[in-house]
Design goal:
By secondary structure, this protein is α/β, with parallel strands linked by helices. It contains eleven helices and twelve strands. The protein is elongated.
Length: about 300
């Protein structure tokens, strides 16, 4: 039955009979067979199919939540029994917003895997709300989000603050400046990264309005658009270090700042975190060690 539970978990997580079959080295018909067997055993329809989408029934949602907890506990037990005393093993599923995941986490994940090579780490990049939803649904054990809001089912742990800067092309009239005032942004052409949009937060409470010329759901395309002179953008400073270093962009501070966004770690309150998750969160909350920005695990 545990294998059927895993197949059901993968089916819900991937929303695909094909992918669930691939993950479990089965045919699609075998996945359907396991699903029917579970539904017959519990006397409930668990999923509704339609137009390539799989939707959980009320019974299916309850079953999914229960099996997630059961499988996690079983996998933790299995890892603990098989591992030598003191060894950290098992699975760790992490989801992060794009910018932090791409620009901040690699140094942490590389150190983590060097220290704990027997941990099977899965990292995916999602939008803020999707990260939270994945943690609440127990599809992900650790989530990294922007400005986490209090939630009755979530534990929030501070991770770090990221400074927001204004980026302009090298030949822009402001390129020689180090700072620019918010008032200067009035009616300025802007490129907006849709997934993580700090402009509203910064301009809230002022009468300043910008002209949104383009909106891209990708920080890299946003940077390329600014390089091409299509507009200005507010982005986390960490995302433009290379472009500034090689003269492709100029990064200006806002005179009224510094403006920062708070990055947080979210986990389910009711969940018993796995040992790999505890170790990873401990690593994230450990200050970088100078010199060489080495991480102490």
């Amino acid at each position: 039955m545990l294998r059927a539970f895993r197949i059901f978990r993968d089916l819900v997580a991937t929303q695909s009979f094909t992918e669930a079959a691939h993950r479990n080295f089965l045919t699609q018909s075998a996945v359907s067979h396991h699903l029917r067997a579970i539904e017959k055993a519990f006397g409930q329809q668990l999923v509704e199919r339609g137009r390539g989408q799989i939707r959980l029934t009320r019974a299916g949602a309850l079953f999914f939540e229960a099996t997630q907890d059961l499988l996690k506990r079983y996998e933790q037990l299995e890892s603990a029994l098989k591992a030598p005393p003191g060894e950290v093993t098992g699975h760790l599923r992490i989801a992060s917003i794009y910018t932090t995941g791409l620009y901040q986490l690699p140094q942490y994940t590389s150190h983590f895997l060097k220290r704990y090579p027997k941990v099977d780490l899965f990292l995916t990049y999602l939008k803020d709300k999707d990260v939270q939803d994945a943690v609440l649904a127990d599809r992900i054990e650790v989530g990294i989000v922007d400005s986490p809001k209090p939630h009755p089912q979530l534990t929030i742990t501070p991770f770090r603050k990221e400074q927001v800067v204004l980026i302009v092309p090298p030949k822009h009239p402001w390129a020689a400046k180090k700072k620019v005032s918010l008032a200067k942004l009035q009616d300025a052409p802007f490129i907006v990264p849709q997934a993580e949009f700090p402009v509203d937060d910064i301009l809230r409470g002022t009468n300043i309005r910008v002209k949104v010329m383009h909106a891209f759901d990708n920080i890299e395309i946003t940077k390329r658009a600014v390089e091409a002179g299509l507009g200005l953008a507010l982005v986390p400073q960490i995302t433009v270090l290379d472009e500034v270093r090689y003269g492709k962009l100029k990064a200006l501070e806002l005179a009224e700042g510094p403006f920062e966004r708070t990055i947080g770690i979210i986990t389910r309150k009711r969940a018993e975190l796995s040992l790999p998750a505890k170790k990873f969160i401990n690593l994230l909350t450990t200050p970088l060690k100078a010199p060489g920005r080495a991480l102490e695990l």
